[in-house]
């Protein structure tokens, strides 16, 4: 059949996946510490087309693209804006790094500093996962005032507690999102110290830029329609070929 | 189908709950001792089409994978226990807790509930009760009929001058309960909370002792809802709802485009 038909279809598929990414960004516009995803499209390898003549070697006359695909999704880790909540256990990381939390499946990382206490006085996430300090789970003492300084050092009244463990990765691209504002790092490499400031009483907004996402949405929608038009055009060509040229009798 | 449709729908759902929470805060802007709630969001699971770090057909390591998220959800509606503004009411039985702690009241079913609402009054027997008629726990405090000038000191001691007596008579002692995680308390309405596993067990002590708030007479604690803040949150939630509906429209547009492929 006509190559262009499949080329246009591949672009429609890629744009459909892109639309899913945009939707997810928009759905998470109010999610604390959410980092937006960007889709990166890649063309399939171009192929050479050649002229075939009798008794001669085929001669290349140029190349032809055969379509496109969503090659990777890239998480844009730029800092979201901070907003004041006044809650003593709301922490925002200003700069690089991730809080370390212990889940039943193992160590996970998060930028969402919306913490609470559990009934043992340990600092936990909304799902009840323990937030780790340098010497183990972050422990508080009931009845004592909680103060956290810029380096993540915890003070209970004037008593020095543990310090929040904040880590970074040499290759943050390989962090995998698993939902619940958590990331895993199976292949992201060794942890290294992060350059950060902890802000107590603040949370980090998601870094989704609504205007940008809306424009991308319109763009994606139009590209999708354009490719549909290409397919319809090819289809009418095929219609001619099959029904007019090839009419018998 | 296009997963974008469902993804955007989760966003709309979440924002709807967010508006519910904000509405409740605004409805309680004048409720004594009311503590505002805040909805927190989380992203949902991800569909990993390509795992980063795996090797491709040529043996090279793939630096970045493809992960497509499936929207957001409300992870918690958290009570924010910051202190509300104080209001001078001149009422002898109006008290505020300056600092941490809850008054304990005994419910008719024998359960103990906790409240920050200090607008107390007397019932027909002179017993000190909340505005709903629940007596103060653990010590029932009776105010004699001939009592004048009731005094409540910062450590919770209730006393009254009684006609014909030189010294004020001590009537009882108010105690405060604290929780290791007040955000885990269960709101049961009427300004009352009950303890849960998440909040931990109450620890009771006299007002003014280390870590506990002190009692101030003649004042009430207003709600800690800040109207401007809630209005801004409401605008943000409404717009977030709208953009998610736009995403649904766009996804629907794409579906209809796909439908027109075959004429």
Automatic annotation (TrEMBL), chain A:
Could you tell me the Gene Ontology terms of the biological process aspect for this record?
bacterial-type flagellum-dependent swarming motility
Q: Which subcellular locations apply to this protein?
A: Bacterial flagellum basal body
Query: Which keywords belong to this entry?
Result: Bacterial flagellum, Cell projection, Cilium, Flagellum
- Stretches assigned to the Flagellar basal-body/hook protein C-terminal domain: 199-243
Q: What is any Pfam family matched here?
A: Flg_bb_rod
Superkingdom of origin organism: Bacteria
Limits of the Flagellar hook protein FlgE/F/G-like D1 domain: 92-150
GO cellular-component terms in the record?
A: bacterial-type flagellum basal body, rod
Q: Which residues form the Flagellar basal body rod protein N-terminal domain?
A: 5-35
Family per record = Belongs to the flagella basal body rod proteins family.
Which protein are we looking at? Flagellar basal-body rod protein FlgF
Originating organism: Iocasia fonsfrigidae
From TrEMBL, chain B:
- Domain Flagellar basal body rod protein N-terminal stretches: 7-35
Print the keywords alphabetically: Bacterial flagellum, Cell projection, Cilium, Flagellum
What does the annotation say about its assembly with partners? Answer: The basal body constitutes a major portion of the flagellar organelle and consists of four rings (L,P,S, and M) mounted on a central rod. The rod consists of about 26 subunits of FlgG in the distal portion, and FlgB, FlgC and FlgF are thought to build up the proximal portion of the rod with about 6 subunits each.
UniProt key word Chloroplast:
no
**Where on the tree of life does the source sit, at the highest rank?**
Bacteria
Q: Where in the cell is it found?
A: Bacterial flagellum basal body
Q: What is the lineage of its organism?
A: Bacteria, Bacillati, Bacillota, Clostridia, Halanaerobiales
Q: Write down what this protein is called.
A: Flagellar basal-body rod protein FlgG
Indicate the family of this protein: Belongs to the flagella basal body rod proteins family.
The record ties this protein, via InterPro entries, to: Flag_bb_rod_N, Flagellar_basal_body_rod_CS, Flagellar_FlgE/F/G, Flg_bb/hook_C_dom, FlgE/F/G-like, FlgG_G_neg, LlgE_F_G-like_D1
Q: Cellular component terms, GO, for this chain's entry?
A: bacterial-type flagellum basal body, distal rod
């Amino acid at each position: 059949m006509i190559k262009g038909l499949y080329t246009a279809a591949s672009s429609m598929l890629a744009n459909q996946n892109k639309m899913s990414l945009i939707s997810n960004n928009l759905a998470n516009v109010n999610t604390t510490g959410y980092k937006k995803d960007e889709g990166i499209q890649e063309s399939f390898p171009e192929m050479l087309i050649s002229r075939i003549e009798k008794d001669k070697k085929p001669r290349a006359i140029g190349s032809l693209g055969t379509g496109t695909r969503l090659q990777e999704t890239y998480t844009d880790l730029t800092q979201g804006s901070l907003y004041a909540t006044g809650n003593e256990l709301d922490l925002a990381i200003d700069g690089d790094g991730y809080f370390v939390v212990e889940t039943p499946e193992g160590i996970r990382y998060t930028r969402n500093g919306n913490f609470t206490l559990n009934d043992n006085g340990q600092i936990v996430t909304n799902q009840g996962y323990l937030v780790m300090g340098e010497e183990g789970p972050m422990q508080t003492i009931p009845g004592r005032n909680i103060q956290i300084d810029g380096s993540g050092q915890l003070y209970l009244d004037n008593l020095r507690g543990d310090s929040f463990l904040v880590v970074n990765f040499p290759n943050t691209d390989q962090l995998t999102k698993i939902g619940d504002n958590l990331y895993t790092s199976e292949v992201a490499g060794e942890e290294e110290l992060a350059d950060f400031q902890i802000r107590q009483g603040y949370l980090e907004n998601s870094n989704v830029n609504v205007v940008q996402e809306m424009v991308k949405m319109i763009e994606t929608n139009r590209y999708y329609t354009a490719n549909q038009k290409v397919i319809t055009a090819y289809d009418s060509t095929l219609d001619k070929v099959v029904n007019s040229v090839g009419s018998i009798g | 189908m296009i997963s974008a449709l469902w993804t955007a729908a989760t966003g709309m759902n979440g924002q709807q709950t967010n508006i519910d929470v904000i509405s409740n805060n605004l409805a309680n802007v004048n409720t004594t001792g009311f503590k505002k709630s805040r909805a927190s969001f989380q992203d949902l699971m991800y569909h990993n089409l390509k795992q980063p770090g795996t090797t491709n057909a040529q043996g090279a390591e793939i630096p970045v994978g493809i992960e497509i998220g499936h929207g957001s959800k409300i992870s918690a509606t958290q009570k924010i226990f910051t202190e509300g503004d104080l209001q001078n009411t001149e009422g002898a039985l109006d008290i505020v807790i300056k600092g941490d702690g809850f008054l304990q009241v005994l419910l008719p079913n024998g359960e103990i509930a906790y409240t920050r609402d200090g607008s107390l009054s007397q019932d027909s027997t002179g017993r000190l009760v909340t505005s709903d008629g629940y007596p103060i726990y653990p010590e029932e405090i009776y105010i004699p009929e001939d009592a004048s000038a009731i005094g409540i000191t910062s450590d919770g001691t209730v006393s009254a001058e009684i006609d014909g007596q030189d010294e004020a008579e001590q009537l009882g002692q108010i105690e405060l309960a604290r929780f290791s995680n007040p955000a885990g308390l269960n709101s049961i309405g009427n300004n009352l909370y009950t303890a849960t596993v998440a909040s931990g067990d109450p620890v009771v002590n006299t007002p003014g002792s280390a870590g506990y708030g002190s009692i101030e007479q003649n004042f009430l604690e207003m709600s800690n809802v800040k109207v401007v803040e809630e209005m801004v949150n409401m605008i943000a939630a409404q717009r977030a709802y709208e953009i998610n509906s736009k995403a649904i429209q766009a996804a629907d547009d794409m579906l209809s485009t796909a439908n027109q492929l075959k004429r």
